[in-house]
Amino acid sequence: MTVILAQLQTGRSIHCSDSLLTRKTDGRRERVEGSGMAKIISCPKFHGAISWWGLVGTDTWNAKNWLEEVISRLDVREKMSVDNFADSLADELTYLLKESHLEKQRGIGLHFTSLEKIDGNLIPELFLITNYNGMEYQTSHRFVSQRQTFHTISDNRDSDFDLHKRPSYRQKVFETLRHAPLIYSNGQPQLFAQLMPEIRFSALNYSQKKQKFWRDFPYKICKKIVELHKEKVEYDQLLADGPFWEITVSLSSIRKRQRF
Q1: How many helices and strands in the chain, by DSSP H and E?
Q2: For residue 57, what is the DSSP state?
Q3: Where are the beta strands (DSSP E) in the chain?
Q4: Which CB contacts under 8 angstroms, 24+ apart, belong to 74-81?
Q5: Quick one: which of 103, 145, 232, 259 could link to 129 by a disulfide (CB 3.0–4.6 Å)?
């Protein structure tokens, strides 16, 4: 289990994640190498970041090293669009699954955010790249990449994902973000759902001018999700825990920090 959260605002995105990695031994969960490190990496070319959940590694593969290698390859492909890059991540994961580098019965999800300049406005997008189907996290043998922001503001009704990169759709997202952020979480949807009333209340009652409040909000929600998880399981069965990591991306900077 992983707890990740991505918060999109005008001109900025913030990713936050827990950092626990475990394996099960004799019925107990033990921390493994890499535990305590961020489950997020930056993607400077697209002014964004990528966080992940699900199957984060096998004996021959892990999400962090693979993503770092893919991003390094991106540096020599200057004309690749953000949509093509997101699609290429999905295609490579499908190939890895087919070639059995990944476990066929397990799923992986990526949150890839980018900042796009459209008609003078910096508008964030979140691409969901996954082979999970639905809230129950059933897996398929093919990964897809889909823009999420317009789909979200349409109350999940508009699924013409190929159209959502058009400026008219992106400007509608921008108008929404002027009033409230868009917040995405995966890894524990049932626990995240318990916090939706607080998230909705905050979106309605805290102006986007309250910068410190919104800077701290992803960490606050991630920490609460982990606290809810800890209430339900014994310590030796924990699947998520701190420290927490954040990456904040704007056009001018990428800032990473650890929080406890």
Answers
A1: 7, 12
A2: B
A3: 4-9, 12-17, 22-25, 28-31, 40-43, 48-54, 108-118, 121-133, 138-147, 182-186, 244-249, 254-259
A4: 74/43, 74/45, 75/45
A5: 145
Sheet containing 4-9, strands listed edge to edge, beginning at the edge strand earlier in sequence: 182-186, 4-9, 12-17, 244-249, 254-259
Query: In angstroms, rounded to a whole number, what is the distance separating the alpha carbons of residues 148 and 136?
Result: 19
The answer, as to whether pTM is greater than 0.90, is yes
Name the one residue in this structure whose structure tokens are 């950092």.
19
CA nearest neighbour of 201 among 183, 189, 187, 185: 183
In the predicted structure, residue 105 carries a pLDDT above the cut 80: no
Confidence band, pLDDT 50/70/90 cuts, at residue 76: low
**What is the residue whose two structure tokens read 């890894």?**
187
Q: Is 232 exposed, middle or buried (0-12, 13-18, 19+ CB in 10 A)?
A: exposed
Average pLDDT over residues 152-175: 95
Residue 186 β-bridge partners? 4
Two tokens, residue 228? 């809810």
Provide the b/e sequence for 60-90 (b: ≥16 CB within 10 Å): eeebbebbeeebeebeeeeeeebbebbbbbb
How far from the centroid of its chain's Cα atoms is residue 49's Cα?
A: 8
Give CA–CA dist 6/112, Å, rounded: 9
Q: Is the pLDDT of residue 108 over 90?
A: no
